[in-house]
Structures are given as C-alpha cells and as structure tokens.
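Morning run. Coffee first, then this:
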Amino acid sequence: MTTPPGDDAAGATRILVIEDDEASRRAVVQCPREDGYAVVESGDGVAGLGVVARERVDLIILDLMLPKLDGEHVLERLRRDNPVPVIVVSAKREEDDRVAVLELGADDYLTKPVTVRELRARVRAVLRRTEGEVTSVLVVGDVTIDLDAKTASRGGVGIPLTPMEFDLLVLLAHQQGKLVSREQIELAIHARAEPQVSNVVDVLVLRLRKKLGQDLITTRRGQGFIIDA
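And here it is:
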C-alpha cells in the first residue's frame, strides 16, 4: 500500500516510510508525525521507489525484508542517482548485514525494536547532516519544475501537465544528462498507468514533447530516454 500525499503544508520535511508489516509501520510513522513532519507510507519496495520518482522526499526510513523488491535492492537503485538520506530499520542484527547496508549507501542503521526516543534522535541527526541538500525546484534549460506545487513552466509560462506526464518529467529531470531506461520509467509510473495503453511510455514522451518542445527529450533507440538541456 502507498499513502497518497496529504494536505501537509508546502515546504514541510517529507519522510517516506517503506515497511510491509502494518504494526511496525504504524509504530515507525508515529514518531515523525508527532514531530510535525509530513509522512508518506509504502508497503513494498517497488511502490516505495515509485513514490521517490514522483514526489519530493527528504528522508526515507527503510525496512530490508520487503515484498516485490527487498530493501537492499531499493537502496542500490536509489544510490545510482538519488542522494536522499536513508535510515534502515531492520530486524537483521548481524554485523555483516549492517556493514553491507552501510556500504550500499545507507546513512544510518537501527535494529528492531526501535524506541521512539532513539528513532527521533537519529532522524534529527540525519536531517541536520543533510540540511540544504534537497531542493524543491528543478531547472532543465528554460523549463522549471516545482516539486511542491507539482507544476511546470517554460520560459516563465505555465504548462498544464497530467499527473503521469509530471511524474515522467520529474524522473527525467532528476537524472538530467543520464539515460533512463524504459524499465525505470515503467516502474516509476506503474501506480498511475492506464492498463489499456500498452505503449504508455511512448505516449507520455510524445505528449511532453508537444507541450514542452521537441528538443527536450532525446530517445536512444533500444536504450531509453534522456534529458540533456
């Protein structure tokens, strides 16, 4: 399951909790919510990566033993191109497990059960270390993307985008100058995909080119798509 974005104030620190066990997830989200953070929940690794691709996330609290895609692979995919801080909270207690996850790029590692006091301290410490590194605005050439408002403009003129078009634009902009495979795009937009449209990625790229300019997105046949403005 994935919690949709709420009515939290724009600019509030957004924390994504990826945990499949409902009781554990409730316990984890209680702490940041009490501290005034905006919290989004996800019950599996694939859905969690989809949230990161579509929305601004300032911190991830990640379980390791997840359905569809385990936490180690979630972290590995994130670290290819996304510096969002990650705190792993897992029942795995072996030193080798902790070391392996930290080497993959986790910012902290806590073993279950976790007390509210300790989780609160670790969240605050990680956010202090990374403060100022996350931006809510992306700029690609003369295209400006506001992640909080979920709007895009070109040359100062607002461009209306559907949710799926916006998701794809954000995904490509986050990886500006890097090739994004069709598989990565399908993973990011799977929750919104229209099942009757088999070539949904090509349709979305075509729409974005019409709205934002033919030169914005380059197709690498058989490889994927790239924004390199």
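The radius of gyration is 18 Å. Good start to the day.
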